Every structure is written in structure tokens, then in C-alpha cells.
Amino acid sequence: MFDGWRIARFSPEGEQLEEYRLPVRCPTMVCFGGADMRTLFITTTRENMSAAEVAQYPLSGAIFTLPVAVAGMKKTPFIEA
Which GO terms describe its biological process (predicted)? Predict the structure, then answer.
């Protein structure tokens, strides 16, 4: 959730199943990786943050990894015909 200090996992029905709090204000994107697709990579930003905010939250802009119980799906390669 951008500007929300966290990311969340939802069921297909829209029910929030899990929430992961982060030490940064602005997570931007997530993707699964690792041999078993059970590592979540989380990108964050420090864009539009003041120097004081960056000093207070120095991990802003970092990439985090998180082991998760639910495996992601491998991306299907796009082949242009």
C-alpha cells in the first residue's frame, strides 16, 4: 500500500489474509523469486521525501526480501509472433 508503511495479501474474494509492516513509508512493487518462489522482493521509494524524512527513515528506497508461506507463480515468457 503506497504511503501505507505495509504490504498486504488478499484472498481472491478480497479478504485481507496477511499484513507485513515495513520500516519505510512507501512500498512500491512486489515480486516473487527464489528457487521455490517463496521469497517476496519488495521495492520502496524515497521520491518526494524531504531530506529530513530520508534521514528519519534511511531505508526508504531500499529493496527488502521476505520469506513467505505461499509460493508465487513463475512468469510465462512473452513470445511475439
Answer: L-ascorbic acid biosynthetic process
Whether residue 33 is contained in a domain is answered as yes
List pLDDT tens digits, range 14-50.
999 999 999 999 999 999 999 999 999 999 999 999 9
Judge whether 12 lies within some domain.
yes
- Is position 43 within any domain? yes
44-65 pLDDT tens trace = 999 999 999 999 999 999 999 9
Q: What is the number of structural domains in the chain?
A: 1
Total-model pTM:
0.84
- Reduced to 3 states, what is the DSSP secondary structure of residue 48? coil
Distances (CA, A) of 10 to 19, 34, 67: 9, 21, 17
